[in-house]
Here is the input.
Amino acid sequence: SGDFKGAVMLRSLASLQAEAEGDPEEPAFAYASVSAFGGPACSSRQDFLSRVPDLEFAQEISHGGQARHHMVMEEVGSLGGTPLLQKMDAGGVCKVDGGLVLVAALPEGGDGAWEEWSGATACQQAGGLQAAALYKNLDEGEYQYVLFAEFDGGTDEAAVHQAWDTAAGIPGTQTAVYRVHYSFVKDNAIGVTAALIDKQREQASQS
Here is the structure.
């Protein structure tokens, strides 16, 4: 729908651990799905949905009964390399099962430079950061900003948490550490692509 560019689904390390241990209960914030759309800038979520009228219906069908935080966001700024959404906007595929991605949903902004209050600078100083980008929710909601901090494959989860813990922090922020679980580009057959990724993942685990 609309000028769709690409999408990624992130799966948390806690969710992967639960699956490995045979726990049927998914932890909170187990997945984060991010999609990139082109076209003119939007003023609100409703403005965006008016351009992709089938999207809201699809979300209700696929996410019914689940706790979801749907947000239409615009970029505040980025540092380091090319962030996930910019890669998708350019038609690129994001590496599946690669480095770690810290996602921090903030209920409000802070004073001073966004790099400081969002925690991006703390992540950069920890080493291993490939890119970080902050996005603003265009509507009122529980979370007003979302930070995506991407680390290289040599960075472990403890180092990512340690980097975040050095940030000043905004009360009520929700964080989790993820990996890219699926990556789709425009004109992909989503179901076929997901099945191929799952097959490659299964073959890799058996080798």
Summary: The longest strand covers residues 174-185.
